[in-house]
Write a structure and sequence with these properties.
Keywords: DNA-binding, Metal-binding, Nucleus, Repeat, Zinc, Zinc-finger. The protein has about 230 residues and is α+β, with helices and mostly antiparallel strands. The chain has helices at about 1-30, 50-60, 75-85, 110-115, 130-140, 160-170, 185-195, 215-225, and strands at about 35, 45, 65, 70-75, 90-95, 100, 120, 125, 145, 155, 175, 180-185, 205, 210. The protein is globular.
Length: about 230
Amino acid sequence: MVQSKKIHYIAVQERSKTRKHELSTSDIIGKFSKEFKCEICGQIFSYKSRLKSHMYVHGNEKPLKCTICSEQFVYPSRLNTHMRTHTREKPYQCNLCLKQYAHKSHLNIRLHNGEKPHKCELYSKEFVHRSHLHRHILSHKGEKPFQCKLCTKRFSRKPQWRIHMQMHGTEKPYSCKICCRLFKTSLELDAHIRKYDGEKKPFQCGICFKEFTSKQALNRHTSMHKPD
């Protein structure tokens, strides 16, 4: 009988500890969750550090800077993702086609099942990614929101603007693994590598059908066909 009471006492004691732990956890969650609120937009954060990073959005301040092209960012995650455009790292691989991607958002099963959920209301054109729809809308609006701060040239797409900004700089972060030659942009490196791949020339003139290794070379050639 004494042993039975002892076992019962221990069981009650353990339940009491469990309840105390649950209460403590609940108190902690209640104390810290939804505590850090943005006074401008009302968004709520669990951590003060996240609220601090969020506030940069309202002040247009971007404290994180790319050491290669000087593009600035608010969040470290955005900077890390951006750096893959320079390092050419592609950590995300499709399980179906084994193709690798630099961004997780590009790794999408919709590419295989044909699903295109993002539709242009004006032209009924459909897109796999929301970013592609946004790019399309800018094109038929004629908007060019990305402006070069050095020569005031404007671009409708951010990748075009980024490549243009690299042309202003003196650094050449892209290196050929075969001959170690350096290039300012990834496009220049790709055109250079094609010379080692059997002189592939994927860019063709629509007038005389001459082929070129880079789009820049094609554009220079096409300008010769234009009347003065």
